[in-house]
Amino acid sequence: MAIKSTYIQSVYDTVKKRNPGQLEFLQAAMEVLESLEPVIEKNPELRDAGILDRIVEPERQIIFRVPWMDDKGKVHVNRGFRIQFNSALGPYKGGLRFHPSVNISIIKFLGFEQIFKNSLTGLMMGGGKGGSDFDPKGKSDAEVMRFCQSFMSELFRHIGADTDVPAGDIGVGGREIGYMFGQWKKLTRLFNGVLTGKGLDFGGSLVRTEATGYGCVYFCNEMLKARKSSFDGKTVVISGSGNVAIYAHEKATQLGAKVVAMSDSNGYIYDKDGVNLQTIKRLKEVERKRIKEYVNEHKSAEYHEGCFDIWNVKCDIALPSATQNELDKKAAEVLVKNGCIAVAEGANMPCTPEAAEIFIKNKVSFGPGKAANAGGVATSGLEMSQNSQRLAWSFEEVDKKLHQIMVNIHTAASQAAEEYGTPGNLVNGANIAGFMKVARAMLAHGLI
Ligand code: NDP
Predict the structure, then answer these.
(1) Domains of the chain and any CATH numbers
(2) Distance between CA atoms of 120 and 437, rounded to whole angstroms?
(3) Which side of the chain, N or C, has fewer Cβ within a 10 Å radius?
């Protein structure tokens, strides 16, 4: 695909000039801008108000030093980020990623995607994202705690329950959120919903842990229903073995599917009898071990070095749930050749644009991340509601709401795709449906 409108091309050219070398951000901006061509043609007032020119520029970008000391007394310095991208629909909302690969481009791409994703949920949340190039892997609990405290010692002045509400992402789970919430409370003396993904004992929501994976499967199920199919009896491959991947496995299995492969950043396992979820949960959530340990306990399984080869495993449904650009054109061609009928992105932008194009061209149902993985932030939104009410809802209540939100997102994206002339193209549909609400709010707020 390529941009045809000279106006939209000029918006993209400015983004490119202003953000040299920020490849992930440019990739995300290009995808959204391409989808919005028919929208701008039909709604010229959006062009006159400079909505696109404004939406691609973050409202605020915060970069800070995070010094901390390891167990041996050695000083380390990491870099912290918080991108407050767009607050048209509510307080900035989006996770924190701790991974050595984190840089400004990755955080901006994630923050940009978050604007449209949060809009799709129907809840009042703006878009933001943050993180650090800190690697929690291999660190002691005490080291992780010292890092989180140092990180929050700067972040606290930029966030707030009605200003900006971070959550987890890669490398940030319940442990890290707990340490950061503790430091927030100490510094501000406020006990409120400033972070989501909190422990259940101090304001967390039931289903938040499961939400992204469950939501991705609920969304994929809607795509399957639209082609008169279901998860029942299907073979599924899920990349990653973190929060999203584990709970995508759990829900897909509950719906009658068999998950035969999962991965981590070193390699993947294939278990023809179905990957045992309890073993994965223990290895990853409790023992924090590598996925290759799985084969020591399950003789039916094989381990292969190299995480990206997981897409060679034959499947009906693929749920890429590890990281950005992990599924390229070649992998997409293999999946199509092997008869895959649906791909839903549990991760953010795991499929390259070329891979997404192959799926759409070959009539593989394709659910882009900003729609398919919106269940996590949606449930974070529900956690914020519960915190405001000082109440906690039951598992069934939250799960029901999450399910309904994912059904609504699928409907909204399908309808927008249809209305703007690309029926079935949920990439366009999600971008357009997410964008329209933000654009209307920005118009209403005037030039700010
Ligand atoms: P976790 O840290 O829990 O797990 C990440 C998984 O992906 C791990 O198995 C990890 O392997 C693997 N992985 C990470 N980086 C790479 C890499 N560069 N190459 C290969 N594999 C990698 O993160 P989550 O499950 O929370 O997040 C996964 C994806 O889902 C991310 O794209 C995130 O942005 C997205 N997402 C998460 C949400 C949430 O609620 N958690 C919400 C919406 C989207 P290893 O252990 O070896 O690093």
Answers:
(1) 60-190 (3.40.50.10860), 211-367 (3.40.50.720)
(2) 8
(3) C
